[in-house]
Hints:
- By secondary structure, this protein is mainly α.
- Helices cover 66% and strands 2% of the residues.
- The chain has one domain.
- It has a two-stranded parallel ribbon with strand order 1-2.
- The model has no long low-confidence stretch (mean pLDDT 92).
Amino acid sequence: MTLDRARPDRRVLTVEIVIVLLLSLGQSAVYAVVSLIAKLTAGKPLSSQAAVLNASVSPRPYLDLTYQLLGIFFDLVPVALALYLLVRDRVSVRRELGISLSRPGFDLGWGALLAACIGIPGLGLVYVAKLLGLNAQIVPSALAPHWWAIPVLILSAIENAVLEEVIVVGYLITRLRSMAVPLGWIVVASAVLRGSYHLYQGFGAFAGNAVMGVVFALFFLRFKRVMPLIVAHSLLDITAFVGYTVLPHSWLTWV
């Protein structure tokens, strides 16, 4: 004999959401705000400072590789927690979040289209924001040039995509909808959260990622699939991380 588990009430879900976010991207948002304040009070223009992603953490190559892989692994643990909590409450992540490999053509096609539609205007926004002094100099990769650097950058890009799209879109929107939050506020919450943990890069990064958050949230509400968003985000980050590493830096000074 099995007992049906009662769906958690609004208060329980609110506490759960806060905990999941504070263990993941909500924590990143807090650090991003502190980082932005530090840059703004450093006594020099924001545009002359750097926001470094994917930095080396050890001068010893294989120790650095170990740290990089451990960082990727542990950053995905909150994703496992969020999916576990949904499955525990009888939410089908396959049906409600669209996390499956059942529609590869749809996922890859829409993912590539979303990446193109967001990535090209995004580059222009970064350029304008830097000219206006609203963004720091973004350094997508500062890994030492070891043989494993590009594979790690690709893994890091995919990890970012899975973490952000599962939690900020799939998990958060699904939970807020079950709490009967109005759709407009759901889209705003997802978009503002996405923008907030990019604030360490500057105000332009906040605005650009918030717009991306609106597009991704509306897409998810329409199609109930996270996979195309993971594909799109992965393509954007792989292009940025690997492109910065392999292209001559003289081509990238405008960013």
